Amino acid sequence: MLEIFLFAVPAGLVILGALIVIFAKNPVHNSMGLVLTLSSLAIIYITLNATFVAMVQMLVYAGAVMTLFLFVIMMIGVDKPEQSKEEIKGQTLLVSGTLLILIGIISYVIISSGFKWDLYFSPVEYSLEGTPDLIASTLFTEWILPFEIISILLIVATTAAIALAYDTKTRKHK
Amino acid sequence: MSIDLIIGLTKAFLVLGLLLTNTILLIWLERKLVAGMQSRVGPDRAGPFGILQTVADAVKLLLKEQILPLKADRAMYLLAPILALVPSFLIFMIIPLGPSFDIVLQGENVTVDLVGANINVGVLFFLAISSLAVYSVVLAGWSSGSKYPLLGGVRASAQMISYEAAMGLALVPVILYSGSMSMQDIVQSQSGFLSSPIPILNSIVSFIPKWNIFPQFVAFAIFFIASVAEVNRAPFDLVEAEQELVGGFHTEYSGFRFAMFFLAEYINMFNMCAITATFFLGGWLGPTFSNILPPIISAFMPAVWLGVKTFSLLFIYVWIRATLPRLRYDQLMELGWKRLIPISLVWLILSSIVLGVREFGLPWS
Predict the structure, then answer these.
(1) Chain A touched by B231 (CB under 8 Å)
(2) Whole-number pLDDT of residue B257
(3) Domain that holds residue A18
(4) Which of A59, A77, B216, B241 has a 20 to 30 A CA-CA distance from A32?
């Protein structure tokens, strides 16, 4: 009973947030809908014993990324409602076609793999999966090379952003 | 109902009651202390020493008319005060108030942790939830449909994002030192006394408790400064600088909704001090005097020690507010990005080197 409650409430909130993202007219409402989706998803992660992933989800997506989104939206002004005219011809048709193909692939995978709607599993089996120790020991042994490459990539991107934003002309006048 | 659920609900209600009554005391204490530092009397009419002044203020705010500005975005305007309160209550759930103890409930032996939720990623939970507090400020500023709140909201979000980075980086050496991200383990790792391999030094430092503040004093300084900025207290209270912004992000709020912002601000302040005490001052550790005091009182001693440490830090907060003038906005940003973050990075590297040498020995030996 409690398990169903703990799943159904966050899952419903995820869907509600996603619907707000799509249908709300105001960009601030859209972004708050996205925050709702991301935080409810974090609750689902916690119920799956992946506490570390849930906390990173809250910290990075709901905390940092969405705050910056909101900040930018506020800075450039939200007085104009978003225009709903199609810019690319046949956009709706293309998107719905792609969506149908995607749904087809997913349902094929589900049916062919013999997936069962089983919400109940013993938590003992999975109790170690989300712990930071386990993630760290995998990340820093098996996946150390990709990890280091990503960190170099991020530093390059940061340096490039600073180089682009640093205006030498206005700087000289000071 | 299962026993776990009963214990969980009891904890939630206790935290709610504790934080609400504590805030009343805290606001009175701050007003009295600031008044004393400025040679005034402070509140002294309601109740003994004016201690009921906050209750009177709260009743006044509850009875006041609530105004909804014409240009306000209704949904977000109503949501913002709630978003301010929820994270402040959530953060307190991870602060350990004492060691776990056993009780008999419905004929079963149950171990109760004196902490709302003893999760293994407590530090991350604290950072994640405190980053959510920005939303209330931003939304309140934007949805009021007025210029001053908007300016206050933009300032607040920039300030909180900047200092969050320094705060998180200052905590990393503490996590490395304690070897855990669980709050209860961080407290346990600080028990005992300092020791040193050098005999003469050892006899001097062996009186000092092994709190993180002594080996991690730089991290403590950075964390303390960043935490003052994070809760928007003086000298970092540009968010609500009266002379420039009227009241900052909550200018357009009145009555009960204003009270919610006020409450959240003080709960955040209390939480921040309790977290600082947990990370750096040994949390609930302290002598319990179990051989002198009756067991029922000595069982409460850990919580008392945490309270003493928290209120000492709160006194420093108030002291700073009464002493230091407000920073200019560019000074604030410079302090955050050009001083605190580089220092915390250097400190992180230094402490990892020390820990590495202690663990694996020198690389050439």
Answers:
(1) no
(2) 85
(3) 2-78+104-172
(4) B241
CA distance B119 to A165: 41
pLDDT of residue A82: 57
B67 or B83: which leads in pLDDT: B83
Contacts of B192 (CB under 8 A, 6+ apart): B209, B210
Torsion of CA B146, B152, B158, B162, to 10 degrees: -160
Measured between beta carbons, the chain B residues lying within 8 angstroms of A58 are 128-129, 131-132
User: Cα–Cα distance between B57 and B28 in angstroms, integer?
Assistant: 11
Coil vs helix vs strand at B240: helix
Residues contacting residue B231 through CB under 8 Å, at least 6 positions apart = B265, B268, B269, B272
Residue A99 lies in a domain: no
Residue A13, pLDDT above cutoff 90: yes
Q: Is B9 on the interface with A (CB under 8 A)?
A: no
Size of chain A in residues: 174
The residues near A51 (Cβ < 8 Å, ≥ 6 apart) are A45, A130, A131, B119, B120, B121
Per-residue tokens: A65: 């990324």
Distance CA B231, CA B269 (A): 6
- Kindly state whether A41 is in contact with chain B, defined as any CB-CB distance less than 8 angstroms: no
Residues B117, A35: Cα–Cα separation, whole Å: 23
Give the mean pLDDT of B198-210.
76
Residues 6+ apart with CB under 8 A from B94: B115, B116, B117, B118, B119, B122, B125, B126, B183
Q: Do A74 and B154 touch (CB under 8 A)?
A: yes
Residue A144 lies in a domain: yes
> How long a stretch of residues is chain B?
365
Closest CA–CA distance from residue A62 to any residue of chain B (Å): 7
DSSP-derived letter for residue B64 is S
**Closest by Cα among B158, B118, B92 to B7:** B118
Q: Which residues of B touch A51 (CB under 8 A)?
A: 119-121
- The answer to whether the beta carbons of residues B116 and B129 sit under 8 Å apart is no
Q: Which of A60, A66, A67 to mutate to test the interface with B (most CBs of B within 10 A)?
A: A67
Kindly state whether residue A83 falls inside one of the protein's structural domains.
no
> What's this model's pTM, rounded to 2 decimal places?
0.84
Q: Which of B166, B169, B164, B186 is nearest to B177 (CA)?
A: B186
Number of domains in chain A: 1
Check B131 against A62: CB less than 8 A apart: yes
- What are the pLDDT digits (tens) for B94-121? 888 878 777 776 677 777 777 777 777 8
